[in-house]
Write a structure and sequence with these properties.
CATH topology of the largest domain: Isopropylmalate Dehydrogenase
Radius of gyration: 20 Å
Bound molecules: nicotinamide-adenine-dinucleotide
CATH architecture of the largest domain: 3-Layer(aba) Sandwich
Shape: globular
Largest sheet: 10 strands, mixed
């Protein structure tokens, strides 16, 4: 498996280095033959190539088996004409990575902020919705009409609703067979109405799966109050973005949220959090989010290519994380005292010994 590695901005280089150490251990133990193609995106690429991402990089990623993208300083990138393209958006749109799979769970031995233990996955549509930089073919869908008036458009299509619903139901079949649809159809009657309709249409193909639905604002209360009620949550782009940060933080830290962006042909592992400039360069960032995302990427590859060794490696990484947390081999945001590099090293050794 050839993986393009882009460390990213802020804490990206530190968390990516720890993640690669863990991937090396997984590769050695399960004989995966992982190969990396190291390149740059974000600020480093802007300096070197005049753009945060380039067409040549895209071609390289298309030819590889997967992409690991570190967190990007997206907020700094404001003008595409100056090469300041949001790398996250770029890959999600160009590779049609329509399903953003974001698991969150509590861990024994780790203090969390939730009312009870839980284990759920947010399945977020990733290519349209309210995201003005990706929901129209060219230009942006956020417009300054007068100096004091802005219009932001939201796109919802039957195709995108249908395929994200299918991803959620297929995932639910491998878990507790329960899908919760999250929407705002009381206000966005047409767009979210279509989203709900398509989810229910897909649900007919999965009669074993229990289905319910929640309005997004009430959902925040339900998730905080009783997260154990949920298994797979399917929702549109922006709601999923917000909800999955909430569930990651409820599980203990934003630094624990894995995130895979998957399409039919390509997939990208990417931490759920941002570049965290407030803690960059201090060796204190939690690398688990990126490590979990790497495990998800191996699992995706294993499933797609029918390669059990990759599925076993992904599973072993999840298990090693449970054990690492129990042993207190964690960063200080979740109550430990290890640095980023030491956390990655301890994780890799644990994986090799298991
Ligand atoms: P952030 O996610 O970077 O940080 C939010 C808070 O969580 C900060 O206090 C940070 O220290 C903490 N945090 C984040 N990751 C952590 C980790 N691994 N370990 C420990 N603590 C962690 O959000 P922000 O500060 O609003 O954004 C910073 C930059 O990241 C902005 O430019 C933003 O646009 C960008 N961003 C990028 C992505 C992405 O690349 N997918 C996602 C969100 C934000």
């Amino acid at each position: 498996m050839k993986i393009v590695v882009l460390p990213g901005d802020g804490i990206g280089p530190e968390t990516m280095a720890a993640t690669l150490e863990v991937l090396d251990a997984a590769s050695a133990r399960f004989n995966l033959g992982l190969e990396y193609d190291h390149d740059v995106a974000g600020h480093d690429s802007l300096q070197r190539h005049g753009a945060t991402v380039t067409p040549a990089l895209l071609e390289k990623v298309k030819a590889a088996d997967g992409l690991m993208l570190g967190p990007m300083a997206t907020y700094d990138f404001k003008d595409e004409a100056k090469g300041e393209i949001n790398p996250s958006k770029f890959f999600r749109k160009e590779l049609d990575l329509y399903a953003n799979i974001r698991p969150s769970r509590t861990y024994k031995g780790l203090t969390h902020r939730a009312a009870s233990d839980f284990d759920l996955v947010v399945v977020r549509e990733n290519t349209e919705g309210f995201y003005a930089d990706r929901n129209i073919e060219s230009g942006g869908s956020e417009m300054l009409i007068t100096p004091d008036v802005v219009v932001s458009l939201r796109r919802i299509t039957r195709l995108c609703c249908e395929r994200i619903a299918r991803s959620a139901f297929e995932l639910a079949m491998t878990r507790k067979k329960h899908v919760s649809i999250v929407h705002k159809a009381n206000v966005l009657k047409i767009g979210d109405g279509m989203f709900i309709d398509m989810c229910h249409q897909v649900a007919k193909e999965f009669p074993e799966v229990q289905v319910d639905d929640f309005i997004v604002d009430a959902m925040m209360a339900h998730v905080v109050r009783a997260p154990q009620r949920f298994d797979v949550i399917v929702t549109t782009n922006m709601f999923g973005d917000i909800l999955s940060d909430l569930t990651a933080e409820l599980s203990g830290s934003l630094g624990l949220g894995g995130s895979l962006n998957a399409g039919r042909e390509h997939a990208m592992g990417q931490a759920a959090h941002g570049s965290a400039p407030d803690i960059a360069g201090q060796d204190i960032a939690n690398p688990f989010s990126l490590i979990l995302s790497a495990a998800q990427l191996l699992g995706w590859h294993g499933q797609r290519k029918n390669q059990p060794a990759f599925l076993a490696a992904a599973h072993a990484m999840d298990e090693a994380l449970v054990a690492a947390v129990q042993a207190g081999e964690v960063t200080r945001d979740v109550g430990g005292n290890l640095g980023t590099a030491a956390t990655g090293r301890a994780f890799a050794q644990r994986l090799l010994k298991a």
